[in-house]
Amino acid sequence: REEAPPLHPPRVHRREIPGGLERDAWEVMAQLIERLGGERIDQPLFGRWSVLKDLDPEGGGLRILPGGEIEARG
Fold first, then answer.
1. Residue 32: inside a domain, yes or no?
2. Is the pLDDT of residue 6 over 70?
């Protein structure tokens, strides 16, 4: 008689939490953009993203539209 394949992968015990390393928010966003088929971002706040350097943390923010167009939120 054949045995059924295991329902779960083997357990791996680690000392750290998977994905628990602290990273800057821009690194997380850059990785998401790249994985979704967008551009690779190695340097934050350069190129078309340089407009974010002057962003007021207390302001209304900016909207990043499909295609990379950036508009002020009021």
1. yes
2. yes
